[in-house]
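So, could you explain the following?
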Amino acid sequence: MSDMNATVQKTATGFHVDGFEKITYDFTFLDGVFDIKNPQLADCYKRWGRVLAVMDLNVFDIYGEQMQKYFDHYRLTLKLHKTKIGEKAKTIPTFLSIVDSMTEFGIIRKEPVLVVGGGLVTDVAGFACAAYRRNTNFIRVPTTVIGLIDASVSIKVAVNYGNYKNRLGAYHAPIHTFLDFTFLRTLPTAQIRNGFAELIKISTCSHLDTFNLLDKYCEQLIDTGFGRKNGVSKELVEVADKINAEGIYEMLRLETPNLHEIGLDRVIAYGHTWSPLHELVPETPLRHGHAISIDMAYSATLANSRKLLSDHDHRRILDLFSRAGLSMDHPQFDSEVLEKGTAAILKTRDGTLRAAVPSPLGQCKFLNDVDAKEMNAALLRHKKIMKGYPRQGAGIEAYVDASDTGYSASNGAAVEAIEAAAEKAGELNGTVIKGGHVPNGHANGVKEKLANGNGYLDGVTNGVNGFVNGSRG
């Protein structure tokens, strides 16, 4: 919630306005947010007697019935906007579909929209709330590791546009976020691994104790959904809860003084110097956690080459990525990506590289004077090191699959198009899609079919790696 206090003064040439915006919002750890024994969420809606929920379709399929019973129990009328948002549909049309549901519902000023899903859903729905009447409240219930650990911390909301991730967006805080880690019981292991990268990110550069716990319990945490699956030891549950609480707190501690990113030296931007461009370079885009892991692993090698990170700590970082099954290298992470990624990030960071690197492990240093020669030398060394690791540094289930394609539920033609293209392409992440077996790799044809239209999508498309930006005819 925001309260605006401002003063205005006359000056010799006009007026001077001095304004300060107070931003307040809360987080509540609550296992079983839709359990009728827990009234906390329902209490937020008693005043209104109803709830408009924007909800991920996959989450609805698992939890929709429980959610309906929960609000029925508290005599709250529930209206659902079901959506399936992946990077390919984190777009203006999806944003507008949510806006249309808000209009149809007749959302009242100050009435909060409930947003349930992963970080992509909360990003797009949060942006819709930021834009609707310029400021509509919302409450977040994140359901993925990235949503719980990373996206829940930030007040940034956005959609992709043109060739760029998160090019259109706003800073808009939810009034409340409920952190329910029991959702991880049903989250696919590939998505647990994907989110694990965010905890490596924050601990490597800012919280050594958390890194040590991740290092000790890595495989157990991923296999058990951070201790939320049945039959898990009390020790692992306590460790997982400590990691999650400390990780979120550390992110908040670092970001709270800089919610609007006025300061551009950001510790939590470790892994985000070259990955924003590289993530979408492969024919089939990389999952976000894998993209930033490649960036982080390379950045650690760069720091080690500069003697800013010891050989021992460098190996610890790389070993943890490898054990977690996260990517550390990719054939298309090359000198061209470094050159173009650097040019792009310099614009974002006001002309200065500000590459966050661990120095030493558990602390952060920003590099501003890295030239192309040094970058490429570190890249060649990094790729040589990767030859000694399992899969030569490639990740497990590193690419987006059918669960990530993410078109709104109403866009059935687009869903069918992407699934048909993926099936035809062959193998991707070892997942069965409509009878086609598809492992990690490039689904040839997916990008072309979506980017060029080919009769699958109505209207105008401007496709980059399968992104659909444009309006329906």
The first strand starts at residue 2 and ends at 10.
